[in-house]
Amino acid sequence: MKASLPRPLTEMVSALERHLRLLHEYSAAAFQRGNLDYGGEIAGKLRLLVTEFRSNRPLLLDLMKTTGIEPMVTLGGPPVQRPPGEPGPGDRISLDQYMRLGAIGVRVKPDQFIMVNKIQLIRGWAEQTGSSHEDWGLDAEFAAVMTFPVTLTGMPGAFAELRVTTATVVDIAERFLVDYRSSKQTGDA
Questions:
Q1: Closest-CA residue to 39 (of 157, 151, 125, 149)
Q2: pLDDT tens, 91-124?
């Protein structure tokens, strides 16, 4: 059964296009020019597109459910031993499943390891920078993940993961728009 939308479909597709334009601008400033201040703006846009908190309905996920157009994510990375039943490199999964995958983990005490998924990373980043527009506090352990001094590809670990997640969401959103426009031309949508 297809989901119902809070606004007309064409209006929501236009909103998606607008958010993607801004996400491209923010991504260039953050990841190409190294301005880490844009991390909050990116997290705020990702929050609107692919995460559901309280009253927020994820725009991209809602559009995909409503139209039935759902490009898949192909996982990359080196072959690794993963827990049984979890997706790994080469597997194709939905964007919703992708957002629930582990994003970054750190050892915060000698006996404590914290792992956050991509949804939690976006929420935490948006909350820390004030771009969530809601008044939530962060658990101490989660705050430790966000500020832990791990670097990946020359960036703080959480920021590097935000880059990978952003690139994946942008790719899926752009493929959705191509498929949506194609279905409009053939009269299917």
A1: 125
A2: 889 999 999 888 877 776 778 777 778 888 888 7
152 has which bridge partners? 155
- The CA distances from residue 160 to 123, 131, 153, 185, in Å, are 16, 19, 7, 38
pLDDT tens-digit map of 119-158: 888 887 777 666 655 545 555 665 666 666 655 555 567 7
Helices (H), 114-156: 118-129, 140-147
* DSSP SS3 for 73: strand
The torsion region of residue 90 among left (phi > 0), alpha (psi -120 to 50) and beta comes to left
Listed by start position, the domains of the chain span 9-186
Q: How far apart are CA 46 and CA 168, in angstroms?
A: 11
- Please report, as a single letter, which amino acid is at residue 111: D
- Say how far apart CA 182 and CA 187 lie, in whole Å: 9
- Per the listing, tokens 């983990």 go with 105
